[in-house]
Amino acid sequence: RPLLEVSNLRKRYANGHLAVDGVSFAIAPGESLGLIGESGSGKSTLSRLVGRLLDPDDGAIRFEGRSIGTIGARDFFRAEQRPHIQLVFQDAAGSLNPRFTAFDSIADPVRRLGPARNPGALRHHVEKCAADVGLAPALLDRYPHQLSGGQCARVGIARAISVDPKLLILDEPTAALDVLAQSEILALLERLRREKGMSYLFVSHDLHIVRMICDRMVILQNGKIVETGNCEEVFQNP
Ligand code: ADP
Ligand code: ADP
């Protein structure tokens, strides 16, 4: 059974723009799917629909067989499913809460979504998440503006894995980084997926990166999937 199943998803913005136009795909447990397309093709909209930050106009999203796509399912999703589907955003430095230390950013999903933990247990858990992403404990007391871009990216990833998700949605997670930090973060993401058995929906405009990180890819053009296949196949007929 697929972990995630998206069928005939459609999203029109208030200005009339049809950003996602009848998209269907599935992600198996442990699979990494690349979502590739030019700027404006609808990648972010699609990833925000799947991550349930936006409501679709039409179509279905099923997670482990349960419907999570409808507005009626929103409360159920927030209460039960949010820990299983986490997001890592582009430009971590800009999307982390500027008033949160690294510690509080990582602890936030746990505080909001998990059962209450005592402070000692929470600190232990946050330090473990930080260690998983190669973030030194001394950095946990810093605010985003006191961290490098690569360190902020690590905080964003530690935050997302803090609730042990089954699916990670990564929206151009290395786009704001220099090449060195970029390759470090990609290696980190590959290792985390191996170790934790997570599935990825990995959004990128960069075929080279998708080929490194993903098993399969779908190509989006004007809100529609125009090609799908394993990375090598798609590469051979451009
Ligand atoms: P991508 O991530 O591939 O760059 P987006 O999903 O951000 O694509 O955008 C898809 C299309 O929807 C673009 O034409 C964009 O201009 C439009 N769009 C994105 N967000 C909004 C919005 N809030 N209101 C209206 N149009 C939007
Ligand atoms: P609410 O915003 O009402 O708490 P949700 O549970 O749907 O509802 O969303 C969680 C909020 O946390 C969203 O506003 C989202 O933008 C924000 N958020 C930021 N980063 C993450 C993350 N990694 N995982 C989940 N939510 C996140």
TrEMBL record:
Residue ranges constituting the ABC transporter domain according to the UniProt record: 4-238
Highest taxon of the lineage: Bacteria
Family assignment from sequence similarity: Belongs to the ABC transporter superfamily.
Protein name per its UniProtKB record: ABC transporter ATP-binding protein
Coiled-coil residue windows: none
Subcellular location: Cell inner membrane
